[in-house]
Amino acid sequence: MRVARQSIWFGLGLSTAAAAIAAAGGIAPVQGALLQEIIDVAVILNALRASKPVKSSDAGELGVPDLAYLLKSPSFSAKST
After folding, report:
1. pTM score > 0.70 for this model?
2. Secondary structure of residue 59 in the 3-state scheme
3. Pick from 54, 53, 50, 51: which is nearest to 69 by CA?
């Protein structure tokens, strides 16, 4: 959650600063749009730090849990009636 909040505040701060510069006539609209895209990508890349890799013993080739592992998990097991 800390990384998510950090990303939000980082993005809001940069966007606010860029909007203030644009409002003062410091950059053209197209430059402002490109700057906003760069800010968005930076925030997304920062937020990706929060994703944690799955243990290799539980991961498939792509680093995500195998279906068999998920089915063995208590949260995915069917409840007997």
Report:
1. no
2. strand
3. 54
CA distance 30 to 25: 12
Query: Residue 59: pLDDT above 60?
Result: no
Assess whether 22 and 46 both reside in one domain. yes
Domain that holds residue 77: 54-81
Residue carrying the six token digits 């929060």: 50
String of DSSP letters for 30-45: HHHHHHHHHHHHHHHH
pLDDT tens digits, 13-48:
999 999 999 999 999 989 989 999 999 888 888 878
